[in-house]
Amino acid sequence: MKKLLILVVMTMFTVSLFAEEGVLIDFSTLKADININSDTPNQNRQTLMDYGHVAGGSFTAQQKSLMMTSLAIENWEVTLNASARSVNNVTLSFTRESASKEFGTVMGVRILFPVESWNSSATIKPPFEIPAYEVSTVSEDGTIQATGSSATAKSRFESQGPGTPAFGVIKNVGVIREVATRVYGLNFPHGLYLTLIDGTGTEKEIFMGNLRYDGWGELRWRNPAYLTEIRNRDIRIVPLYPFNTPFIKFGGFRVERNPSAVGDIGGDFVTYFKDVSVIYDLAVLDTDRDIDDEATWNIIQTREEARKVWEMERFGQNQVLRYLETQRQASEAPFGDPSRSQQ
Questions:
Q1: For the stretch 97-136, what's the b/e string if a residue is b when 16 or more beta carbons lie within 10 angstroms of its beta carbon?
Q2: For residue 342, what pLDDT band results from cuts at 50, 70 and 90?
Q3: What is d(CA 71, CA 44) in angstroms, rounded to the nearest whole number?
Q4: Are 183 and 161 in contact, with CB atoms under 8 Å apart?
Q5: Least enclosed by CB within 10 Å: which of 10, 39, 137, 249?
Q6: Rounded to a whole number, what is the largest CA-CA distance in the chain?
Q7: pLDDT > 90: what percent of the chain?
Q8: Distance (Å, rounded) from C-alpha 162 to C-alpha 72?
Q9: Partners of 210 in the β-ladder
Q10: pTM of the predicted protein model
Q11: Residue 149 in 3-state DSSP?
């Protein structure tokens, strides 16, 4: 009996020892705090990205200097599904920096749903897919400087340690046990979904719950397939090197309106987001190995540097297309605007 008790205690200790809790993304850290081609702060310095180097040779140096964006709250996109995507609804669905007495700056979202009784939804996504291998620093003037290898250093979108800000990436993630998000409810019956993206690019959408409550609340999802008993798990031995360390990154939210729900109304919907946290098992344990495999072969560094280039090219191409669209957009004042009398 005594031996059995010791075994149970050791098993419980093992489960708790290797489970980690981390903040995936904290919207209070995404306030605009740097001026990029603007007289007022319009970008977030820590998450600033320069896509001018993938724009091609047909752009001038001045044009390329304008090709910068970040995860600043007001850069996030609100995209309505097809049945809700009228011109007016799209125009009046957007994100804003919002002041919270409890948390400081948070991300506010306004969505204009149709007033008609049909299913509609809106996704809230970052302006670009958050990169997992962006190893660099950003100076006070917005200059981005690469630092170290993406195989050995942390991405600047990761938390750099306990208590430090998180911008959408967590590395070394095994099985996810729980996900939680702090979101402000205003008694709407709408459902909230959260999207995670893993290292293979696979997106997983999780239903967090509905927003039928008043004030700040924490919506939680517990993995129904998570096994706490070690002896019940499918334990496998897998090669350690040179395989990548698994990671997850934040893909966005989706708000779904269900017109059949009691108390549902169409039209304007408003909510606010503070952060997203995850409890997960470690994928790989840090051990004191006799040989530094990566120092000998550089396999992971070569592979992850190639993936970083691929991430940047895909991100840059999309941003260049948006830049071209802004250049084509009409800039004249509307007919009847008082400023036209001075032209």
A1: bbeeeebebbbbbebbbbeeeeebbbbbbbbbbbbbbbbb
A2: low
A3: 6
A4: no
A5: 39
A6: 93
A7: 47
A8: 23
A9: 191
A10: 0.84
A11: coil
The secondary structure of residue 158, as a DSSP letter, is: B
What's the average model confidence in pLDDT over 160-187?
A: 92
Backbone angles phi, psi at 286, to 5 degrees: -75, 120
Please give the pLDDT value at position 293.
Answer: 79
Backbone angles phi, psi at 28, to 5 degrees: -70, -15
Alpha helices in 193-298, H assignment, sequence order: 293-297
Residue with tokens 């239903």: 207
Contacts for 306-311: CB closer than 8 Å, 24+ residues apart: 307/132, 307/133, 307/150, 308/131, 308/133, 308/134, 308/135, 308/150, 311/129, 311/131, 311/132, 311/133, 311/134
Task: Name the pLDDT band for 242 (thresholds 50, 70, 90).
Answer: confident
Please indicate whether residue 152 or residue 86 has the higher confidence score (pLDDT): 86
Residue 132's region, left for phi above 0, alpha for psi from -120 to 50, else beta, is: alpha
Q: How many residues does the chain have?
A: 343
SS3 290: coil
| Highest mean pLDDT (candidates 28-32, 144-148, 309-313, 338-342) | 28-32
Burial 169-193 (b: 16+ CB within 10 A, else e): bbbbbeebbebbbbbbbeebbbbbb
Q: Among candidates 55, 37, 18, 14, which has minimal Cα distance to 312?
A: 55
- CA triple 198-251-268, angle to 5 deg: 155
SS3 84: helix
A 10 A CB-CB count for 340 gives: 11
At 148, the amino acid letter reads G
Joined tokens for residue 311 = 């991430």
Q: Which amino acid appears at position 132 of this protein?
A: A
Residues 6+ apart with CB under 8 A from 69: 43, 48, 49, 51, 75, 127, 128, 319
